[in-house]
Target: DUF4126 domain-containing protein
Amino acid sequence: MIRSLLIGALAGARALTPLAAVAQAARRGALPLDHGGPALLARGPFAWGALALAAGELAGDKLRDAPDRVIAPGLAARMTTAALAGAALAPRRQRGPAALASAATALGAAWLTWRLRQAAMRRFGQGVTGLIEDGLTVAGSALLVRSARRL
Model:
């Protein structure tokens, strides 16, 4: 269940990147056989749509008028996508607890990463801090998904 918690933490920073990474892995059949992910994640339109939305989120985050991640819709999105991704990375018998734990982790991580980003933006600006956060989230999501792949 550690992967579910970690993917939830990443979803706290970027709502769609972790889900897109998990959906792409599911589409390729690269998740463990006993994974708890819904079949919807493996469908091409969902996986490609999640990837497109994640790219949009990465671009939109750098805009000056981008909303804070800690507003209600942002928190709800993070918790929802974290729950889906977290369930997909957990063994099927742990799907429910993994989804809840991942959503809760995303909620806490959203507040933590928002505070860290606010402090970093005062020193380095919005664009640089956003790119660093993007890199960490993309790399972390890729590593988690790769570590969960079928052997």
About this structure: The chain has one domain: 2-145. The chain has a mean pLDDT of 90. The helical segments are 2-13, 17-28, 44-60, 72-89, 95-124, 126-148.
